[in-house]
């Protein structure tokens, strides 16, 4: 078993399942929390994430297969998606695939799923198909404000990690998003994104 990523919420390992490469995600205990409360939180988040991964598949979002969930250890064993993250692709490819990313996010939002951690590292290109991964911070929500938070994050990531192509990639992302949610909702969500941005821009420290 090989540690791939040590995160604030969970550790990610590369392992095997029935002879196939697999990903093991383990939510570790937080020493600063009450042990009973901590166990409950980790269990609930593990359940929610595994359910969301399966749910998004039902409305056509390519995502990993869940092989096994261990509630006692707050871990999920799932399919490894072989490929490359959108983050690591050439700029021209990122611009092109931004439209597909927008469609996938639009499909999630239309079905009441807020991803919660929309970064270009959580989209993987595998065999000419874009997969969505890491639903650890996802939640059920039809609230436009929550969907705007999702879009604000991906816009922020494009601006920071892909600054040279930000405008083109963001434009394509919104084109894909609008195709799924419709122009009215797209305008409403992007207006809310602007509101969120203005709050941050004019916030003062007291």
Report on this model:
The chain is built from 5 helices and 10 strands; from the N terminus they run E-E-E-H-E-E-E-H-E-E-E-E-H-H-H. With 206 residues, the chain is of the alpha+beta class. The strands form 3 sheets. The chain has a 5-stranded antiparallel sheet with strand order 1-2-3-5-4, covered by helices on one side. The protein has a 3-stranded antiparallel sheet with strand order 6-8-9, covered by helices on one side. Helix 3 (144-161) packs antiparallel against helix 4 (166-181), helix 3 packs across helix 5 and helix 4 (166-181) crosses helix 5. The radius of gyration is 18 Å and the shape is globular. The termini are far apart. Mean pLDDT is 94; it is low at 202-206.
Properties at a glance:
single chain; 206 residues; alpha+beta; Phosphorylase Kinase, domain 1; Transferase(Phosphotransferase), domain 1; 2 domains; five-stranded antiparallel beta sheet; 5 helices; disordered C terminus
How many β-strand stretches? Answer: 10
- In round numbers, the mean pLDDT is 94
Lateral strand order in the biggest sheet:
1-2-3-5-4
Helix share bin: 40-55%
Oligomer: single chain
Described by strand count, sense and barrel closure, the largest sheet is: 5 strands, antiparallel
* Element-by-element helix/strand order: EEEHEEEHEEEEHHH
| Total helical elements | 5
Q: Name the CATH architecture of the largest domain.
A: Orthogonal Bundle
Low-confidence spans: 202-206
CATH T-level topology of the largest domain: Transferase(Phosphotransferase), domain 1
- Please give the domain count: 2
Question: What is the end-to-end distance?
Answer: 48 Å
């Amino acid at each position: 078993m090989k540690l791939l990523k040590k995160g604030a919420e969970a550790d990610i390992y590369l392992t095997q399942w029935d002879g196939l490469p697999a990903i093991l995600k383990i939510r570790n205990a937080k020493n600063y929390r009450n042990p009973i409360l901590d166990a409950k939180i980790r269990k609930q988040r593990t359940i929610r994430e595994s359910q969301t991964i399966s749910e998004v598949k039902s409305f056509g979002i390519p995502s990993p297969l869940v092989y096994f969930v261990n509630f006692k250890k707050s871990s999920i064993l799932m399919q490894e998606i072989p490929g490359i993250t959108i983050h690591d692709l050439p700029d021209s490819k990122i611009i092109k695939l931004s439209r597909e990313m927008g469609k996938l996010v639009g499909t999630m939002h239309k079905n009441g799923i807020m991803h919660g951690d929309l970064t270009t590292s959580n989209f993987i290109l595998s065999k000419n198909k874009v997969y969505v991964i890491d639903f650890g911070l996802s939640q059920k929500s039809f609230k436009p404000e929550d969907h705007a938070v999702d879009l604000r994050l991906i816009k922020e990531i494009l601006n920071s990690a892909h600054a040279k192509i930000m405008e083109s990639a963001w434009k394509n992302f919104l084109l894909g998003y609008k195709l799924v949610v419709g122009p009215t909702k797209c305008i409403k969500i992007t207006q809310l994104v602007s509101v969120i941005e203005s709050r941050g821009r004019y916030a003062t420290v007291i």
